[in-house]
Structure formats: structure tokens, C-alpha cells
Amino acid sequence: MSCEKFTENMSAYLDGLLSGKELSEFQEHLSVCNRCSQEAEELQSMFSWLKQAGDVAPPKELRKSVLAELKKEQSSKGRRYLPGFSQAVAAAAVLIMLVVGNLSLLPPAPLSDTVPMRATYQEESGAETPPADAIIYTQEAPDNVQFSEKSELNSAAGSEPFPRRLALNLILIPLFLFFSLRVIQKRKEAG
Amino acid sequence: METDEKILISLCKRGDLSAYDKLMQRYEKKVYALCFRMAGNPDDAADLAQEAFLKAFRALPSFNGQAQFSTWLYRIVTNTCLDEQRKQARRPQLFSLDKPLNTEDGHLALTLPAEAPDPLATALSHETEAEIKALLSILPAAQRLVLVLRDMEGYSYEEIARILNLNSGTVKSRLNRARARLRDLYLKKEELFPPTVHLKGKEGRGRS
Ligand SMILES: [Zn+2]
Questions:
Q1: Contacts by A136-142, CB closer than 8 A, 24 or more apart
Q2: Is B30 within the bounds of a domain?
């Protein structure tokens, strides 16, 4: 029988992976074939030569340098590691819009009710003194003055603020719920 | 042990670096040894091991636990090593033993690249170790990899197949070829490494 088949199986034989008929055939061949038995011996000798290779130890600073690199990456894009951070920011922004929007679209009210309005203006502008239009508004409180600036958008509705409030809430509340759910989802994903 | 590792992995996925330190501690010896056998020198081995650990951390979110973590990690390591070999194949070779030179005084010369400032200093003190390194570096990277995994690091055929994403028949035939090739070199090593071997630091003495 030709040696080729045995040469192909040499590694499997040396690793003890042959069994049954394959093994007995191989052993039989080795006992009659000088070439193959020499090959097997040479390989065994090579294995013991390879085993003389000493253990290698990783450098002490290996892990340190990996961690230093990762720390740099984390601080440069730190937000990635706060799961749901951007969704939380979006939810908070929508919540602010909801509060501010509802307050500024309060139904027409008596003069005394204009005080909270000022507060919202202050919140938005960050200034101590309310902007000019706010002052006008607080001075001449009559019904539709407060909508004069947006009257071209709302000529049909006239002075009735409820459709706009309704629209505002219909858009913003689901948006707020959406972002809030995304925050929860992201935090769950992160474990 | 297993659940412990799962906990470490989930902490790592959340960006916990001290958990990753512990995880690396478990595998750094094997990872580095593999890189060392593939690269042939400590500096490149450290670079490869570092790169592999960085890649692994970045890829951890996609590790779903279907494979064993060690298998998954070693696959990243072997890919990193093979990528580097591919890059190096475009650069000057480390040893030109394929075409040994006969110098004027009749001895074999090994040509070492000029960028290694002092090859003898970085060579391991043990002569056998240096021989093993030199002969391994002649094997094609894919063959060297299976041989290192099996005959130096002691992985089974099945483990190697999983790490390299090959079927075990391919592993068997590749290992067989690698061993046959290394055996030829091993038998010739007395010629390749005569006691009076010359180490030339200059480039240009080697092959064109
Ligand atoms: Zn034979």
C-alpha cells in the first residue's frame, strides 16, 4: 500500500486520534515501512525539541496599558457608557416644553393671574426683567391681547386657547412617554 | 468559575474596567504566549496582545455567550496575529532562510532587518528557543498558527477548529502539512545553525 495515505494520517496517529481498523492498519504499516516509521520518529523528536521552549510571561504593564487606553476612550465618549443618557435629556426637554407650553396657553384669566406668566418668561429668557411684550401683556390684560403675536396662526380659533393646548399635549405627552420608555429600555439593555 | 466569569463579562459590557482587569488576568498568559509564538519577539508580542485585548473589550457588547468566552477571545487574538502577518508580508522579511546565503568564508548567513537595532540582545538566551523561533518564522502564518496552537499551547483539534472557525478536517490536514514542513527544517537545523553562524545586521545582503 502506498505511503501517502499514512502520511496524511500521521498527525492523527501521533495525537492518538486513530482507532479500530485505521489504527491497526497504521501500526502494521509502520512495522514494515522504514520511511514512515522514520518519519514518525523524527516528528516525535521534533515534539520534544519544541517542548524545550520555555514558558513566556506577559509583561507586567500589559494589562495596565490596555486599561489606560480604554479609560481614555471612555472619557472621550463618556456618554456612551451612561446608557439612556441622551434619551433622558430628550424626555426632560419635552417635559419642560409641556410645562411651559401649558402655562403660556392658560385660558384667558383675570389680571391677577398674569403673575405666573411673568415667571415663565423669566424662566425662558433668564433675565430679571420680563421682555417688552410681557410687560405690555401684564399691563393691558384684556382677553385676546396675549395671543396677538400668534394671531396669524390662529385666526379661526380666535381667542380660544384650548385647541392649541390640546394639540400641544397630544404631541408632547406621547413624545415624553416615548423617551421615558426608551430610557428604561436602555437601562435594562445595559444590564 | 463559570458563573463568576459571566458576572465579570456583564460588568465589562457596562464598561467596568476593573472587571476587565480581572478577566484579562485570567487569559493574559495564554494570549501573550500565543502572540509571542506568532510574532517571535517580546515587543511585537506585547503590541499584539494589547491590540487583541482592546479589540475584545470593544467587541464585548456583541458577545452573546453562545460560544465559550475563551474561544471567542482566542479567535480575536489569532485574527489579530494573522492580520499583522499579512501586513508584515508586505514589509521586508525577518529571516531569509528560504534562500540561505553562502558568504565568502563559506558559512551560512542570516540576514536580519536593519530596523532591529540589536538582534542578539533581543534573542532569547536559550539557544533552542532561538532556533525554534527562527524555524517557526519560516512557516506560513496559517500553518504556524495551527502548529503553535496544537504542539506548543496544547489545544485539541476541536478547540482549534472552533477558534479558527474551520472544520476539523481542515485543521488536521493543515497541521499535518505544518508539522511535515517544520520537520524538514528541524532536520536541517544543524546546517541552518552551524556553531559559527554569522548574524549580519545589514540589509541588502539578503535576497532581493
Ligand atoms: Zn510508508
A1: A138/A114, A141/A110, A141/A111, A141/A114
A2: yes
